[in-house]
Design a protein that fits this description.
It is found in: Cytoplasm; Membrane. By secondary structure, this protein is an alpha+beta fold. It has twelve helices and 19 strands. The protein has three domains: about 80 residues, Phosphorylase Kinase, domain 1; about 170 residues, Transferase(Phosphotransferase), domain 1; about 100 residues, PH-domain like (Roll). The radius of gyration is 23 Å and the shape is globular. The chain binds adenosine-5'-triphosphate. The site of adenosine-5'-triphosphate has 21 residues, from strand 1, strand 3 and strand 5.
Amino acid sequence: MKVDDAAGVEAGKEMEKDSESNKPSSAQNNPDARSVQRTKSFTFRAPQEQFTIQDFQLGKIYGVGSYSKVVRARKKDTGIVYALKIMDKKFITKENKTSLVKLERVVLDQLDHPGIVRLFFTFQDSQSLYMALESCEGGELFDQITRKGRLTEDEARFYAAEVVNALEYIHNIGLIHRDIKPENLLLTAEGHIKVADFGSVKPTKDGQVSFLPTLPSDDKACTFVGTAAYVPPEVLNSSPATFGNDIWALGCTLYQMLSGSSPFKDASEWLIFQKIIARDLIFPDYFSEEAKDLTDKLLHTDPAQRLGAGPQGYVALKIHPFFSGVDWDNIRSQTPPKLALETGATEGHELYHAHDGNGSTRSSEASGPVPRLASIDSFDSRWQQFLDPGECVVMISTLKKLQKLSSRKMQLILTDKPKLICVDPAKTQKVNTYGMDNQNYLSIVVTSPTNFKITTPKKVMCFEDAKQRAWQWKEAIEGLQKQ
Ligand SMILES: Nc1ncnc2c1ncn2[C@@H]1O[C@H](COP(=O)(O)OP(=O)(O)OP(=O)(O)O)[C@@H](O)[C@H]1O
């Protein structure tokens, strides 16, 4: 057996291994865990099945994560649709993600709440691990904010209340999610919230989730788990994670729902962190007093004082005037806001200026019919080096560059120069820049919502955008060429 194959087998065994734990059985503390039979060996509620990928009819790609791909998949015999999370065993082993994958599997298995994505079963083959998740057909809350520009206070209240309801459950069983953000808040076809992505979860010492794998320490200085724009100031100062992390991220998410963008945004992670540490928070005029007050209290600098994490816990959070009228006991039977469906059209445009090298940054500005930035936190400081002073990023995404027999991850950056920069994230010295004037004529052809081709005088490049923004890339490029 080759070393790589052996590694793949290990990843599979590790994810499904009956785990020994010296923790008490969660069935004693958690009524939801009673359905799991706890004899000598532990049985997962979501079983490991003997299915193969051929048992499923695969549909669109919902999205691509750092070590997985999530695909809509209909089980051929039952007709039931799942979101199939597919992970490459060799990649997981190579990247040392085995214990994190197992953690996510064990945690999802024991979570039982209508506001959290459900894991139904797992299976594997020689190459991949598969998790069959509840399919969230309404997409990400992030896309609702992008499509609507910003949400009304009623809409934001509805979503925030459902997130609070799920977070209360998550915290009560002793878990810190650590990556709450609009991209990880998925929606059902009806429009109810489902918290997803437990890949960064941190179990607390006296939590109720059992059979946890041993994890590598992440408490090292200079590293943080989560997403730059939603990370609380104390985590940047290397304090250990607390429930207050998720409350801060909830505050950022509420702000983003109401305003259209996250409260601490800038052109690089470093600049975002400066804003977070300085708590450089500006409320738009149209926020109601209740919305301002709640956001302000969720974004308290002291994690222990954040509403919900403070001494009165969730009671204090739920009675905040912003939530007046919310029927907390019947929250999942309320009618959700109408979902904004995907359209080719885009509104608004935000530009993010490059740092000018003198320590000052210029602010963002709005103009022109060019698409909105996908997500400012996708602009990380690594890409800054490719911009000239004052140059603005119009669109940026990690895409797949498709070649004849293979594909590779690429960072595509469109700037207002206009210029298209294509960087291999694994080797940032490998960068190609394409001008877009008459001599360097560049054209773009969309072949599907996910795929597009870029033709330059010297080559044709095929890209796949898992977030289905092929039309947005075309509009943005052609918009700049017309200017
Ligand atoms: N149950 C689901 N139903 C529908 N779409 C989903 C579901 N789970 C995940 N997705 C989509 O698939 C994308 C990839 O999910 P995945 O969990 O692999 O990684 P991620 O959370 O985006 O990234 P990372 O692993 O880097 O944190 C998500 O952004 C989301 O849009």
